[in-house]
Structure formats: C-alpha cells, structure tokens
Amino acid sequence: MGMDMLRGVAMSYQQSSSIITRKARVWPEIAEDTITLPTPPTLPNLPQSSTLITIFLSLAGMAIYGYVFTHLDTGESSVLIIPFIAISGLMAVSSLIMFLVQLISVQRRRNYLLRRYHEQLQEVEQQLKLLHWHERQAYMELNPPLSRFEYKSSVYKNLDVKPLLQYPYNDQNMSLWARQPDDQDFMRVRIGIEKRPATYTIHDQQCEERMAIATHLDSYNDYAKSLIKTYAHVFVPLCVDLRQQSPLSIVGPGHKIVLARELMHSIVSHVAYHHSPEDVRIIILAPYSQETAWQWISIIPHTLRYDARLSSTHMEETFQEHTCAIGTAAVMDQLPVISRELGRRELLLGDNRQQQKSSLLPHLLIVVDAFDGPGDLDPSTPPLPTMAVPPSHPTQYRRTRLSVSPIKRPEMALALNRGNQLSVSVLCLCTNQSQMPQTSQLLIDLDEEKPPKTLLSNSEEEEASSKKKRKKTTKDEDQLIAGIQARVHSLNEKPQPTRHCLQLDSAGLEDLRSFALRLQSLRALNTKQLEMRTQVDLSTLFDPPLDLNTYDPFVLWNDPLFRTPRPLLRIPIGLKIGDEVQYLDLHKDGPHGLLVGQTGSGKSELLQTIILSLAFLYKPTEVNFLLINYKAGLALESFCRLPHTIGCFSNVSSPALIQRFVTMLRAEATRREALLKEGKTMPSLFIIIDEFAEMAKCAESVLDELFTIMRVGREIGMHLLLAAQRPEGIIGSRVRDYVQYRLCLRCASPEDSREVIRRTDAADLPASIPGRGYLLYGDNQLDLFQSARVTLPFIQDQMANAQSQLNSLLSLPFKGK
Q1: pLDDT at 810 > cutoff 50
Q2: CA distances (Å), origin 476, targets 170, 252, 328
Q3: Record-annotated residues binding ATP (predicted)?
Q4: Residue list for the binding site
C-alpha cells in the first residue's frame, strides 16, 4: 500500500519529462606539487670569551699598578708606573668597546636570520593552506554529500559544499549524470569521510639538522613540525569502486544494521545521481519487511525494466514496470530476468567481445538487502514425491519458494563470479560476515574493534588519557570525527591496507523520497543507437514501414522513386550502427556478388532478404529470379511461388542436372543478346546459386559458363550472386576478378575472412548473433551491418494474388510462373 501511495504522489508531482544531455566534464585541478620547508638558518656565534679575559687581565694589571703607585714608596721610579696604568686602562676600554660592538652586530644578525626564517615558514604555511583547501574542495566537488552534513566540522571547514539535493535537476546541471563509462570514476561512489595523505608532498630535507640544533630553535622547529602535522593529511570523501570491487558486502551487526542500510541507500543514490540510466541500471532485491525503506527507488528511471532489444525510448513506451522486487514473490519473479540477462552477456563475452575493448552497457547494479529477519523468507517445505505436473497447472504453484537469501540463489552465480567481465556489480547487506558471498572483493565492516585493556601498559594508559584531555580542547574538530565508524577491507589475494571511514554517509527517508521525485521525470538524450541491433525486421527498413496487414504490392511497384526511368536496383538489406539503413546497389556496385558465411551465420536469411527486397520494390516485369540450390534445402525453395521466379532448382547435385542448368543459362544469354540487338527491354535476371563452391567441385565446366556470363552480364541484364560456406580457394584463383561486391558473414577462420574481405574481422563476428556481417563494395569500402529478417508465407501469398492484376494492368506478357 505504501508503494502505491508513493506512485500516486509521484504521478501528481511529475511534470513533463526533462531531457538531460551529456555534458563535457570539467575536472578540478588537484596539485601534486612538492613543498620544501625552508632550511633552518646557521646563526653566527657570539663574541669569544677570550675578549672578556683580556679585559679582565687589563683591569687586573691596572689595579696592581695603581696599588703599587699609591701604597708603595718607589721614589722617582713611581712616575714610570703611570704609563702602565694608562695602557692597561686603554686596553680594557678598547677591548670592552670591541666586545660590545661585536655582540650587538651578532645579535642583530641572529635576530634578522630568525625573523627571516619565521617569515619563510609563514610563506610556506600560506602555500600549504591554499593547497590543502584546493585539494579538499576539489574532492568535495567530485563527490559531494547527498543531503546532511555538519558544516562546522573541520572536515567541511572553509569549504563551499552543496549537497546533491540542493543542485538543480535540469539540463543546466553539469554534474548530473556526468560520469561516462570511459571515465576513471565511473561507478566510484562515496561512502563517507576518510583521512589520508595529501596529494602534494611536504619535503623537509633538514630534518636531522633541525634535531641537532633544536636547543637554539625550539619554537621555530616546533612551528615547522606543526605545519607537517597539520597539512600532511586531508579529510576527503572515502570512495569505493563498484565496478572493479564487486561483490561488495556491508556488514552491520545488531543495531548497526540500520546504519548499514542507510549507507546502502546513500550508495544507490549517488549511483543514480552521477550516472545516466543509459549507462547504469539498478535492480533491488529486498524482503517485504523493508518495503518502506525501498519504496522510494521504485520510481526513478534507473530501475525501469531493461530490454537489450529495445532503445530507451521504446522501453519507456513498452514497459512501465520497475525492477524493484520487494518480497519473496517479487524476488522470485525477478531472478529469472536477471539470469537471462547474465546469460546473454556471457554469450557476448564468448564472442570475443573483450577483444573489441568495449564494455557491456548498461552496467547493472544488483542490490540485495539482508534476508534474515523474521518472515523475510518463505518457510522451507519437505520434498514431495516425484510426480508429473500437468501443464494446465498455474505457474505460481510450480514456482519454488524463496527459502534462502537471493545472494545464495543459482541465478546470481554469474554476477558473483564474473561480475567484472559482465559489467555487473553486486552490493549486498549482511548482519554478519558468515553471510557474505565467497567471492566478495570488498568488505565495509561497521563492527567496532577494540583492543583488550590488558594490552595497554600503565604508561600507555596514562598517555592515552592525556591525549583524551588534549582532544577536549578541540571540540570543533571532534564534533563530527568521533572515531572510526567503519573499516574498509580489500579481500583480494594481495589485500590493500585497511581504510578507515571516520564518518559514514546516511540519508533519511524524506531526503530519499525528495531525491526520487525530482529524478523521476528526467530522461537521458539518446543521440543514436550506440550498439548495433541484433534483430532487424525487413518491413521496418522502408519509408514508411510496411504494414503487412494492409500490404499492397502495387504501392511500391508503381512508386517512381525506385525507377528513374529504369529500375535502380538499390535495395535495403539491414542496419548499420546508429540505425542507419544498409543499402546494396546492384547497378552501381554490381552486377555480380559473392556471399560467404559458415553454418549458422545467417547466410540463408540474408539470401531471403535480398530476394524479398527486390520483390517488394520491383515488378515481375522488371526483376526475375533463377534460384539454384546445390543441396536439398528450403532456403530458396520457399520463393518458388513468387511471381518473379522463372525457375527454381533444388538438390542440383548430379552432373546431368548441372549440365541442364548450364544449357539453360547459355540459351537465356543467347536469347537476351538477340532481344538486345532488336532494341527490346528485358527484366533483370538474378541468378542466385547457394552452395556454389560444392557445385564447382562437382562440375568444373560450370565455372567457364558462369564466367562467360559474368563478362557480358551487365550488358544483357544478368546478375549472379554466388553463395558458399567457405571460399575454398575459389576467391584467389578465379572468382575474385569477376565479382564486384562481397557479403561476408561469420567465417570459420581468419584466413577465410581475409580471402573474402582482405581482413580477418569476419572471423571475430559473434556466433550468438546470426546475420552480422560485412559488405565490401566500391573502392574497397567496408561496412559492418546486421542483416534483416523476413516473414515469407504472407508476403508470397500477397504477391501471388497480385500477379493476375499486374498482367491486366500492364497488358504485358509475363514470362514467369
């Protein structure tokens, strides 16, 4: 009921669809500079203590001389003492003056060097502040939060951060659906905040010297160390790669299952915002108990049912069902759909798809919620005795119950084991690690790990308590980062170091509903069909497309577009990349051709397409068919009833029948040459020979007759199309010089492909897609196309019934049946 209410609100909220075009991405610059801390200055030494000793000795000498002069009666010799007293005084005064001058000079020099060093540290700090801010801002712009965040925290301090819900959801938004499959961050989404080393580098080449002179520059060295400690790490979004690290398991034991589910909601929301539904589709498998938690996603375009055979526009018109399976019944209906899509992708991989270096699109994200709550799974039933179930029984009685989590179902095996190759990511929620898939590549563990207290000594406990006291002084920085909330473990054979998530992303249900409602009306602009179609209906190749229920042969037979004034013989045979029609011009690129394709490649279908395209567009008085099948097959025999067909030979394997056929060709060529000399017009005769190589082996004389016709075929209106499974050396020997266009479907070997189209590409065509091939024509022009398929009985009946009308309208003798 809740899901129906949400859809009702969505219908009332939804406006006309907004088309979102692909934008050119503007990547933020993230510096990888190296910032070198300034070298500590070498301070000049203070004046030597020997100067003070000289002053002291001079003063002592002057005192001694003064004492002798004043207290001792030396007579006339006392006058000689006065110069010594003066000299000692002058020496003391001069030494003192010199000492003071040197002291002041050295002190000034020391102050200047320290002041300059402090200024250099401040300049480096300004550079680090700018680099630190730029890096944090760049990563936040690439991976902003969905809705809520604490802007006062040190994580977002001084940053211009806008949550995704505040962005405009229109074509002017540069980040909406901006990530493309070739981008390095395709399917990389944030799960929270981590602290990691900065991209730029802080280089301190004088670290040892700094320690040696720490007694002189304690405060300055502490300043330099604080710069390294503050700016060497940054708080940035912690991102995981869903494409390369699948399956990804989120383990939330106990009450933390709520946080784990909110994290899963946030991951899915980021995928839906950053990736177009043309590139990513989301499948949800959840228990009925979590209907409220997942009902919001059932309206976004990424969960629209995907069909590889249809374009996005056709899917929107055809399907209104979303791949949000909630409850065991819906999950059991969705699992076969997943299995079929995985099987289709495995077939494409088996056809050398990886060698073409193109990923399978859209990328599938399969989200599996925890199925271990009461009532989440169907109760297991004891096995019943083996019995035949009548086909009239309803399907729901034959459906197996969902008694284990979808992650353990066999339908999910390919996604879990080969998800990387199949472009499938699996995101699952578990309540303990024993529920994780065995092939998990990444684990987000919300279980808190604490070492036992016995491992901590008393000194370590005291140090830990002192750290806690210091942390209390920085309340702003610890308002958000309170500790490790989750640990991200790589589970590869060569595991990477564990990454610590300091804050997990989360999203409330109201934010999720708002996000889904704003995303619901958006549609991606599909400029062209990037992948070639695998199924092409011949009736859709005409303009306007043919409606077989109201088909009238005379509409196209009398259309002057295809004859100006003579028949143009330009027919559609399939589609190229981008839904461009592939034409075969039998006048310009003919008249003779070769068709090669091994068993199962669609050779017979292509022959039928060529025949019926000609029959659609041209009258029996303009085009005739002579059909020869060396073996007993039904590919050409089905066209015997067409009014265009003047002859149909099947199982022409005996030399007598082959000789009869050759005689008939010789007579027809002679007749046409005589009519041409009389100036009469004749219908173009298309001679189509299936299994031509086998016929040539049986009767080599047939080659000479055919080559004679090929030389004059354009003048007398005779066209030959030779079909074979393998070239068998006939291309290099004789036929190569006589055919003008070559149709090459899948070949058995690269050598066969090179014989036909001069390249080995036809050997790599997918075996699972019959009708895929190459057309070599003109001046060595090569086109890859998907041939169209036909529906024979109805068309033949219509054309056969039109034969009598055609004769009466044209009043011309008809040479056919």
Answers
A1: no
A2: 36, 28, 47
A3: 597-604
A4: 597-604
**Residue 325, both tokens:** 């399976």
Position 454 scores a pLDDT of 58
Indicate the helix (H) or strand (E) that contains 525. Answer: none
Q: List CB contacts of 200: < 8 A, sequence separation 6 or more.
A: 31, 32, 33, 34, 35, 131, 135
CA–CA gap between residue 189 and residue 391 (Å, rounded)? 48
Closest among 266, 406, 391 to 330, alpha carbons compared: 406
Cα–Cα distance, 251 to 644 (Å, whole number): 71
Instruction: Count Cβ neighbours within 10 Å for each residue of 536-547 and write b for 16 or more, e otherwise.
Output: bebbbbeeeebe
With 80 as the cut, is the pLDDT of residue 359 above it?
Answer: no
85-94, 235-244, 320-329, 666-675: the lowest-pLDDT one: 85-94
pLDDT at 196: 92
pLDDT class of 396 with cuts at 50, 70, 90 = very low
Token representation of residue 30: 């993230």
Considering 81-85, 185-189, 207-211, 544-548, the range whose residues carry the highest mean pLDDT is 185-189
User: Rounded CA gap, 253 and 449, in Å?
Assistant: 12
- Distance set, CA 426 to CA 21, 416, 621, 650 (Å): 28, 7, 62, 54
Q: pTM for this structure? A: 0.66
Q: Average the pLDDT over 142-154 and give the result.
A: 80
Binding residues for ATP: 597-604
User: What value does the mean pLDDT take over residues 415-438?
Assistant: 93
Q: Which residue has the tokens 């500790």?
A: 483
Q: Structure tokens of 433? A: 């690690």
Instruction: Using the CB atoms, write b or e for 730-749: b if 16+ within 10 Å.
Output: bbeeebeebbbbbbbbbbbe
CA–CA dist 692, 707 (Å, integer): 13
3-class DSSP assignment, residue 386: coil
Phi and psi torsions of 576, nearest 5° = -100, -175
Domains and CATH numbers, the chain: 2-19+242-373+400-449+476-524 (3.40.50.300), 34-142+188-240 (no CATH), 538-740+783-810 (3.40.50.300)
- The token pair at 719 is 């066209």
Structure tokens at 354: 């990886």
What spatial distance separates the first Cα and last Cα of the chain, rounded to whole Å?
66
pLDDT at 480 over 50: no
Contacts of 116 (CB under 8 A, 6+ apart): 41
Half-sphere exposure of 552 (CA within 13 A, CB side): 6
Rounded CA-CA distance 635/629 in Å is 8
The span from the CA of 395 to the CA of 405, in Å, is 22
What SS3 class is residue 13? helix
pLDDT band, residue 466 (cuts 50/70/90): low
**Backbone phi, then psi, for 220, in 5-degree steps?**
-70, -40
